[in-house]
Amino acid sequence: MNSKEVHRGELILDSFKDLAEKSKNGDGKAFAEIFSYYSRDLFRFAYYRLGNKEDAEDAVQGAVLTAFTHIKDLRDCSVFKSWLFKILSNICKSYYISPKSAPSVPLEDVENTLRDENASVSAGGSEIADLLSALSPEDRSVVLLSAVGGYKSGEIAEILGCPPSTVRSKLSRSLAKLRKELTL
Question: N or C: which end of the chain has fewer CB within 10 A?
Answer without folding.
Answer: C
